[in-house]
């Protein structure tokens, strides 16, 4: 009898979780944010992904490393990837290195080109 109750409880728990999981649907905005958050490894990376200019400025003011690689991307690479051109200007003004490469040999300009981010491409090409 005890085994039957345990098995019944497990079956109910599994079926409830499966039905709840099938009802979970992310909005387009949530899906975009989820992809962006996958890159966010530090508070600065997170702020760049969010496009949060004020927090980017605060973090830089507090001395964060603007060239820190997290998940093989620098904040400048992320800003280029997501066409956050205002943040690109802030990062560059505060020492971000546009010639920095990740393990695959990509620079921020390459990420902007991948994303067809015309404003970011224009800013980064003018640095050559």
From TrEMBL:
Repeat among the record's keywords? yes
Q: What keywords are assigned to this protein?
A: ANK repeat, Repeat, Signal
Q: Where are the ANK repeats?
A: 39-71, 71-103
Transmembrane ranges?
none
Q: Tell me where the signal peptide lies.
A: 1-20
Q: Which Gene3D superfamilies match?
A: Ankyrin repeat-containing domain (1.25.40.20)
Q: Which InterPro entries match?
A: Ankyrin_rpt, Ankyrin_rpt-contain_sf
Can you name this protein? Answer: Ankyrin repeat domain-containing protein
Q: Which organism is it from?
A: Flavobacterium azizsancarii
